[in-house]
Amino acid sequence: MQSEFFAKYLSNVPVLAVVASSLLLTAFILINWAFPDILSFTQ
């Protein structure tokens, strides 16, 4: 019952979009914090 509700909740497109964008933003921030030279496009 709980897993079915969880799967149905994750299958919603807006929820999936929010989760994906937050994960991408977190990964971007972590990479930028760990390796600041990789994402610097000005050089």
Automatic annotation (TrEMBL):
Subcellular location: Cellular thylakoid membrane
GO biological process, one term: photosynthesis
Keyword match Thylakoid: yes
Topology in the lipid bilayer: Single-pass membrane protein
Main location: membrane
Transmembrane residue ranges: 12-35
Family: Belongs to the PsaJ family.
Protein name as annotated: Photosystem I reaction center subunit IX
